Amino acid sequence: xxxxxxxxGIETSCDETGIGIVRGHTLLADALxxxxxxxxxxxxxxxxxASRAHLEAMVPTMQxxxxxxxxxxxxxxxxxxxxxxxxAGALLVGVAAAKGYALAAEKPIYGVNHLxxxxxxxxxxxxxxxxxxxAMLVSGGHSSLLLVDDLTAGVTPLxxxxxxAAGEAFDKxxxxxxxxxxxxxxxxxxxxxxxxxxxxFPRGLTAPKDQAAHRFDFSFSGLxxxxxxxxxxxxxxxxxxxxxxxxxxxxxxxxxxxxAKAIDACLTNGVKTxxxxxxxxxxxxxxxxAEQRAAKHGxxxxxPRPGLCTDxxxxxxxxxxxxxxxxxxxxxxxxxxxxxxxxxxxxxxG
Amino acid sequence: xxxxxxxxxxxxxxxxLVEVTADGLFGVAESRTVDPRAHGEKLxxxxxxxxAEAGYRPRDLTAIVAGLGPGPYTxxxxxxxxxxxxxxxLDIPTYGVCSLDGLGRxxxxxxxxxxxxxxxxxxxxxxxxxGERLTGPDVAKPADVAALLAAGSLPADSLGxxxxxxxxxxxxxxGAGPLAAGLLGDAxxxxxxxxxxxxxxxxxxxxxxxxxxxxxxxxLYPPGAALVALAAAKIRGEAPSEVLTPLYxxxxxxxxxxxxxxxxx
Lengths: 350, 265
Ligand SMILES: [Zn+2]
Hints:
The structure holds 2 protein chains of 2 kinds. Helix content of chain A is 43%, strand content 18%.
């Protein structure tokens, strides 16, 4: 009997250099190097800084992953790498490195879609994904609702943010409250002691008039501005800003919209499984609210553990393993780094 | 000893195989594509092609030599990421050399200005005598390089005589601008008026009218064999593998956010 394939995944689409190794759908290693600290003083990810960090981190992170899994590159059956979407210069470092590994070790290479990988990673923890499923991917770089018909062949985009990503809104609000970067975990912690009903912040694209054109789209720019106005009005009046209440009320507005639209997408498509991924999936309020609302409709919510929600190499390896298992042809050595890679493309055709 | 040379510091993606023997270098195969936006797509197939053309497999390689730039960063990193990952996978040493030195070496006898396109209407440049670097590498506007040449004065050798040290190079060249006023006084010897008698590199071709010396139009990109020649002693001596750090001559463009702008009017 043949062993399940040993697949290596490389992720460099933003500020995390991730190398993951799976055997079949079992996670063997997940090594990560982050440049997040280098971006903190800029209040957001600086692409050139991220690209420099990826190049420095690649070889040592690979070594850690191989050591953790107890394998060598010669043992690997296939190499998967994030081809897009993401920061062009950052993606290019991962793609070039992946080609070097594939070329030298004479292994097939798969250029894969970062968003599909966010969905695939859940199968490492929760087993095969019932298809079709709805996936909601929310992070500093993306906010999307997807209908997953077949993880290895096609994903249908239902909606996405029309302005800021959900995680970006957390970053910007944390900054205007003077809480630091990245904003997601800080707001989550700060909100615990606040009253989420204290301030009625707007819910973007939820009005009846938005249903026709933007039923499954998101908008967080107006919310961010509303928070800024509210805070500034208090400051001008010489009143203290109730940071915990603002955090809780802002977080509630984001989570309310995200979960309402995700459940609507499940009901509209007759889907009973909702997968949530991306860094914002680690938000405690989002998880609770999604589960409460889904339970009312008999929908099962699947959320990977926080370390697998944020960008990592395991997710890329997981998707690569699904592609190998499905007999999908590998990509060619001229596969591009595609910063605007379409969701309809799960892997770069060979 | 079969050596792979890679360079993506210019619009060219170059992959070359060179045989290094005890007393010589022999070019085996070379592939080059000139497309400033396609290093990421072109380089790996070129490596596969030169290996196939020569009838070798990756495991036959003894070492990898990579051009560290200076060059536009996005493309430059493609060559270095590829070289580093191949070296790791094959467990063979990687050596970094200055890409301008490859051109300087290939230019041969005489005094030569090597200039490559740094974009933003600037060039990366260095000067050479008989293949040995005299000054640079540095980055500046072509007109400023021309003025320095006319004055017979170029900044002192940023690299010193020791091994390539990307960290100290980056530090020395950052700051108030690569050709800060202070450097202008550091003439290299007094008598280098008419510092060079010709120029090479695609930056020299692009801005050749400004430099006022003949441009060698056949020598625009670093040849693989010249890069290997620069590392030949290390290859023969089985020197320890080197971390491939790009010669970054500029700081990342990034600004810290300004104070919050009011949203109430
Ligand atoms: Zn992501």
